[in-house]
Predict the 3D structure of the following.
Amino acid sequence: MISNPIRIGIAGLGRAFSLMVPAFTRDPRVQIVAGADPRPEARSKFEADFRAKAFDSVEKLAAEGDVDVVYVATPHQCHAAHAIAAAAAGKHVLVEKPMALSLEECRAMIAAARNAGVRLLVGHSHSFDAPILHARRLIDSGRFGRVRMVSALNYTDFLYRPRRPEELDTASGGGVVFNQAAHQVDIVRLLAGSAVACVRALTGAWDPSRPTEGAYSCQLRFRDGGFATLVYSGYAHFDSDEFAGWIGEMGAKKDPAAYGAARRALQGDEMQVKNERNFGGPRFAPPAEQQAHQHFGEVIVSCERADLRPLPTGVMIYADGEQRLEALPPPRVPRAEVIDELCEAVAGGRAPLHGGEWAMATLEVCLAILRSAREGKDVVL
C-alpha cells in the first residue's frame, strides 16, 4: 500500500476520461488534482466536481507542480505531442490507446520518457481486464499446455456513436483498426505469449457516410508457431454481447430491446449530440454501474489440453475431462488493474507490462492490418 495517493492530472476531458473516472475516484491510491481541456464548459464542471484546477492547455497542466502523472486522453493525433510534453516536464505518463499513429511517434515517446527518467504506460486496453489476466495465469501454470490458437470476435455499434470528423478519417486515427484493434490485438498478444511474426488482413468500409474502416478480419502468426484469428465489426447490426449474457463491454447489463439506438441518435446534428453527451454537456451521464468484469467480445484460447474462454464472470475451462467456470468476484473498483500497474510502476519502481515497447508492438500489428488489406498480401513484422 502506498503512503500517499498518486496525483493525477487529466489531459482531455472527453469520453475516455469519463470511462476512467470511476477508477480514479474510487481507488484511494490515486487522486485527481488537475485537468486540461479547451472547452470552458468541461473545465467548469471539472472544477466543480473534483475541486481541482483546470487549464486550457496540456502544456500548462504538465507544468503544474502538484501533478505526479499525466493521463493523456486527448484525440489520437495529439497523443505523442502531449505525452512528450508531460515527460519533458518530469511527469509520469499514462496514455490512452492507441499509443500514437506511427512507430516514429512511439519511439519519440519512449525516448522522451527514458530521457526524463519517468514511467510510460499505455491503457486502458481490455488486456487489463481481470478475466484476461486470469486466463494468462492459467496458461502460465502449465496445466493446459502451450497456446496453439486464439479466436477473438466482437460485433458492436462502434461506428455509429457520435463522432468528430477526424474520428471517421483513418489518417487522423479514426476507424475501427486504430480504435478497436488496439484492444483486440493487445488481448491476443497477451494470451498467446509470443511475438507476432506475420499479419494477413482484410478491412471493410461499406457505408459512404462513415468513410473509414468499420470492420476487419485478420490472421496473426506468432513466432512460436501459434496463430490467431481476429474479427471485428462496428456496423451496429449483430451485437456479440448476446454471447456474454447481455453484459456489455463496460461490465453493465444491456437491454437487447434498445436495438438500433445508436443509429437513431445520429438523426439530428451529430456534433451537437456528441458535445451534449461529452463531459460538461447537458446530456452527459457517467458510466452505468458495473455488475461484472469488462470485456471485449468473445475470446477462446486453444491450448494443447484445454480451451479457455474469458467471460465477464471469470474464465470457463474446457479441459480433457471436465468443463467448469473458474469464477472471479465482481470488481470493487472498475479498471483497478490499470491502477495496480500504475502504482507498481510509479511507486514500486517496477517496469510496466503495458509500457511503451509493448504498446508500440500492438500498434505495429494495427498498422500491418491496414497495410495488408491495402496491398492484398502478408506483412512480415
